[in-house]
Recover the amino acids of this structure.
């Protein structure tokens, strides 16, 4: 239904009691962030769970909490440490915003987590649904949520066949979520409706035969449960490419760049990148000019791919083994040498970390490439 005026909110007048009864019997109650429903723990879990499944989050959450057990510890930490404990979860802006948010709460709120919707949504990385989860679970306030699981449950229950991200549809779903949210046991209700969407009313192969709302669900009655909610209008995902260089010095150290805060893999450490329009020889020449390499050997490695939400990235790696410890970079650059044991402690993008872990130590019996003159006139620092 493109018009949301046809939704009959009286279709499930006992929605909350029925949902809570189901949760009492079948809901998940042993997730690590459920043992202590403090605002800090709830907040971290909700940020991690954005666009990420529970099964993938549990291990990261436990490690993160072991390192940053409270807001004060997180606020006092450096960004590299936070990103290191986030590496592999993806969507790294979440980690940067988490860190910024902790520092704001520590400095502007005296370390006390805000407990109003207006204050929460002003903080970096916290939208209305995340704020609702914090308020309902940690503060037991009757605040609605509308994450992906809840959207799916409500769309199916009321046979809403328009894309839930459409502004008019989203507005109506928020109104519906607000009306269905109870005054009592709101913390358990919030967990229950997320659980229902995650375990029974799943995106594919929903288990309608186990759902407590089978007799109420308009999508089930009309055999539309597999086509609702409507998918986001598809756009062609472009493919981009990049060269990366695995540059190793005679001591076995690798050259890594600390990436800018903004952009893909912001704030993480990664390999030097080069223009995809270059061929192998062009990359070697560019690396020689950029870093003042005077001798070495080079080997092309198998291409691999990483898929982001909005494009595919083809990564063509090149291994460069320096023949001499002659290498210079500008004092202002973001490149540094790291030994293998140091690399393992850095925050690396998941595909780069996997690539490096699969690479054996490069041998010097590779093709020797031409010596390049370093024409950079800036003051250089010789790598130690």
């Amino acid at each position: 239904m493109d018009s949301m005026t046809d939704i009959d909110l009286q279709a499930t007048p006992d929605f909350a009691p029925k949902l809570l009864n189901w949760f009492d019997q079948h809901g998940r109650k042993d997730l690590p962030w459920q043992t202590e429903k403090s605002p800090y723990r709830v907040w971290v879990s909700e940020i991690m769970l954005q666009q990420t499944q529970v099964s993938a989050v549990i291990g990261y959450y436990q490690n993160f909490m072991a390192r940053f057990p409270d807001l004060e510890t997180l606020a006092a930490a450096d960004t590299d440490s936070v990103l290191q404990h986030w590496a592999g979860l993806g969507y790294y802006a979440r980690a940067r915003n988490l860190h910024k948010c902790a520092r704001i709460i520590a400095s502007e709120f005296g370390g006390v987590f805000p407990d109003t919707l207006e204050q929460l949504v002003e903080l970096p990385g916290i939208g209305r649904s995340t704020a609702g989860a914090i308020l309902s679970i940690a503060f037991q306030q009757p605040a609605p949520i509308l994450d992906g699981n809840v959207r799916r449950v409500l769309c199916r229950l009321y046979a809403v066949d328009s894309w839930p991200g459409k502004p008019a549809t989203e507005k109506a779903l928020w109104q519906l979520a607000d009306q269905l949210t109870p005054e009592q046991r709101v913390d358990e209700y919030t967990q229950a409706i997320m659980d229902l969407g995650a375990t029974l009313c799943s995106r594919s192969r929903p288990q309608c035969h186990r759902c407590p709302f089978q007799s109420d669900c308009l999508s089930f009655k009309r055999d539309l449960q597999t086509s609702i909610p409507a998918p986001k209008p598809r756009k062609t995902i472009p493919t981009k490419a990049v060269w990366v260089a695995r540059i190793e010095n005679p001591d076995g150290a690798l050259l890594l760049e600390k990436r800018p805060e903004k952009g893909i893999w912001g704030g993480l450490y990664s390999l030097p990148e080069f223009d995809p329009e270059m061929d192998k020889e062009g990359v070697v020449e560019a690396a020689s000019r950029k870093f003042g390499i005077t001798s070495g050997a080079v080997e092309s490695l198998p291409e691999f791919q990483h898929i982001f939400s909005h494009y595919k990235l083809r990564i063509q790696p090149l291994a460069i083994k320096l023949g001499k410890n002659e290498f210079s970079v500008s004092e202002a650059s973001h490149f540094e040498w790291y030994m293998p044991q140091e690399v393992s402690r850095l925050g690396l993008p998941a595909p780069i970390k996997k690539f490096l872990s699969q690479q054996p130590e490069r041998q010097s019996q590779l093709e020797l490439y031409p010596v390049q003159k370093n024409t950079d006139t800036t003051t250089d620092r010789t790598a130690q």
Notes: Residues 10 and 180 are 10 Å apart (CA to CA). DSSP finds 15 helices and eleven strands in the chain.
